[in-house]
Each structure stands twice: as structure tokens, then as C-alpha cells.
Amino acid sequence: MRIVLVGPPGAGKGTQAALLAERLGIPHVSTGNLFRDNISQGTELGREVQQILREGGLVPDEVTIAMAADRLAQPDAGDGFLLDGFPRNIAQAQALDELLGEGGHKLTAVLDLEVPEDEVVKRIAGRRMCRKNSGHVFHVEYAPPAVPGVCDVCGGELYQRDDDQEDTVRHRLELYHQETEPIIGYYREQGLVVTIAALGPVPEITQRALAALPEADAA
Ligand code: AMP
């Protein structure tokens, strides 16, 4: 399955993507996590994008598309993937279509996570990420770790992302409405969009997603 996950920042894309990817046996590809990994490893790409991420802006398309293409060319993504945070605008969506087309593939579905805006802000304010593994995400209220500040999965230190501060969140939401929301219309024309309500307990949302996805085994 080749799936794209869309939804505003704080919709729970990262959380659901990790769970769905595991259930479906496909890699979770998050461009945000790839950028953060590059930043924490001090790579040239990391240095180039650090400031943009801190301010909640969008990394230029050519950089993002090249990084995503590189990741999707790896063998584990050959039979499918779950994209989280990419594409984030129409140009990236077109680039992804081209890239897949070259290999004779196309997307299976675009899963749109719908969440009211006030809920989004609450979720982001309480979000804590693991320093050791960006896929491990907690929330001080909704998904607290057993020991405050420590990742339940790997013992890594939990921290609040720079771009999860309130001002930056507002900017990211604006960018989402301007740049990213139009891709839902783009994919709707291709008949790919499946919308689910991303409210309620995390496992229920995962079940809802599995039930809504074509070919997925919801059992
Ligand atoms: P995320 O973890 O998906 O919220 O992404 C964190 C940050 O990484 C975003 O606020 C952007 O600065 C950058 N980023 C991630 N994915 C993309 C993308 N597809 N295009 C441009 N910038 C991106």
C-alpha cells in the first residue's frame, strides 16, 4: 500500500502513522523526522534546514523532494510506504506522482485526519518527543509516559519541539491552510481521499483508519 497521511499539525499524524505502518507492515516515512534526525546528527542538510524548522516554515521543495525521493528509493519502501508530512503542497504532490509513475506505481489512498482547530492547539502544547527516537511521541495529558520526561519505549529523554511553541504553531497552522490543504482537493480529483474523524482514543482512531483504507485488514 502506498499511503499519504494529511491533516493539520497536531492531528496525530505521527502517532497514527507509526501504528498504521506497523499494522500494515510498511515503513513510516516522515519528512519532519528525517529533517530532525539530520539536525540532531549535525549533517550538512541538518544545518541547512535547522532555522526553517525552528521557525515553523517550509523547507524549499527541491531539498524536500530530493530527500523524500532518496528515502522512497530504499528497498524497504519498494512495496509500499506510509508518508507523513509529505507532500505538503501541490508542487510536492505533483513531484510524488511523477516519481511513482516512473516506477509504474500510484498512490493507494490519501488518509485525511480531521480535527477541530482548538483541539489541535491543545494537542501540540502538551506534545513531548523522544530525543533518541523521533517516532516515540507522548502527551503530558492524553498519553503520559510512566515516568515524566522519560520515553516508555526506549528510555530516551522527552522534550518539547521548538516549533511546538504557541506562536510557531499558529504560523504552522496558517501554512497548513494555505499550502497543504489544497492537496486534499488535488487528490480528491484522483478519487484517493478517505477522511476520518481523528478524535477519541488513539487505538480507536487507528481502527477507524484501518477500516476506511482500501485493502486494509481491519480485524
Ligand atoms: P512535521 O514533523 O511533519 O510537523 O515537520 C516539521 C517541520 O519540518 C515542518 O514544520 C517543516 O519545517 C519541515 N517539513 C517537514 N516536511 C516538509 C515538507 N514536506 N515540505 C517542507 N517542509 C517540511
From TrEMBL:
<feature type="binding site">
    <location>
        <begin position="85"/>
        <end position="88"/>
    </location>
    <ligand>
        <name>AMP</name>
    </ligand>
</feature>
<keyword id="KW-0547">Nucleotide-binding</keyword>
<keyword id="KW-0545">Nucleotide biosynthesis</keyword>
<feature type="binding site">
    <location>
        <position position="36"/>
    </location>
    <ligand>
        <name>AMP</name>
    </ligand>
</feature>
<feature type="binding site">
    <location>
        <begin position="57"/>
        <end position="59"/>
    </location>
    <ligand>
        <name>AMP</name>
    </ligand>
</feature>
<keyword id="KW-0808">Transferase</keyword>
<dbReference type="InterPro" id="IPR027417">
    <property type="entry name" value="P-loop_NTPase"/>
</dbReference>
<dbReference type="Pfam" id="PF00406">
    <property type="entry name" value="ADK"/>
</dbReference>
<feature type="binding site">
    <location>
        <position position="172"/>
    </location>
    <ligand>
        <name>AMP</name>
    </ligand>
</feature>
<comment type="similarity">
    <text>Belongs to the adenylate kinase family.</text>
</comment>
<feature type="binding site">
    <location>
        <position position="200"/>
    </location>
    <ligand>
        <name>ATP</name>
    </ligand>
</feature>
<comment type="pathway">
    <text>Purine metabolism; AMP biosynthesis via salvage pathway; AMP from ADP: step 1/1.</text>
</comment>
<comment type="function">
    <text>Catalyzes the reversible transfer of the terminal phosphate group between ATP and AMP. Plays an important role in cellular energy homeostasis and in adenine nucleotide metabolism.</text>
</comment>
<feature type="binding site">
    <location>
        <position position="31"/>
    </location>
    <ligand>
        <name>AMP</name>
    </ligand>
</feature>
<keyword id="KW-0963">Cytoplasm</keyword>
<dbReference type="Pfam" id="PF05191">
    <property type="entry name" value="ADK_lid"/>
</dbReference>
<feature type="domain" description="Adenylate kinase active site lid">
    <location>
        <begin position="127"/>
        <end position="163"/>
    </location>
</feature>
<feature type="binding site">
    <location>
        <begin position="10"/>
        <end position="15"/>
    </location>
    <ligand>
        <name>ATP</name>
    </ligand>
</feature>
<comment type="subunit">
    <text>Monomer.</text>
</comment>
<feature type="binding site">
    <location>
        <position position="92"/>
    </location>
    <ligand>
        <name>AMP</name>
    </ligand>
</feature>
<dbReference type="GO" id="GO:0044209">
    <property type="term" value="P:AMP salvage"/>
</dbReference>
<protein>
    <recommendedName>
        <fullName>Adenylate kinase</fullName>
        <ecNumber>2.7.4.3</ecNumber>
    </recommendedName>
</protein>
<dbReference type="InterPro" id="IPR007862">
    <property type="entry name" value="Adenylate_kinase_lid-dom"/>
</dbReference>
<dbReference type="InterPro" id="IPR000850">
    <property type="entry name" value="Adenylat/UMP-CMP_kin"/>
</dbReference>
<feature type="binding site">
    <location>
        <begin position="137"/>
        <end position="138"/>
    </location>
    <ligand>
        <name>ATP</name>
    </ligand>
</feature>
<feature type="binding site">
    <location>
        <position position="127"/>
    </location>
    <ligand>
        <name>ATP</name>
    </ligand>
</feature>
<feature type="region of interest" description="NMP">
    <location>
        <begin position="30"/>
        <end position="59"/>
    </location>
</feature>
<dbReference type="GO" id="GO:0005737">
    <property type="term" value="C:cytoplasm"/>
</dbReference>
<dbReference type="InterPro" id="IPR033690">
    <property type="entry name" value="Adenylat_kinase_CS"/>
</dbReference>
<dbReference type="GO" id="GO:0004017">
    <property type="term" value="F:AMP kinase activity"/>
</dbReference>
<dbReference type="GO" id="GO:0005524">
    <property type="term" value="F:ATP binding"/>
</dbReference>
<dbReference type="InterPro" id="IPR006259">
    <property type="entry name" value="Adenyl_kin_sub"/>
</dbReference>
<keyword id="KW-0067">ATP-binding</keyword>
<feature type="binding site">
    <location>
        <position position="161"/>
    </location>
    <ligand>
        <name>AMP</name>
    </ligand>
</feature>
<keyword id="KW-0418">Kinase</keyword>
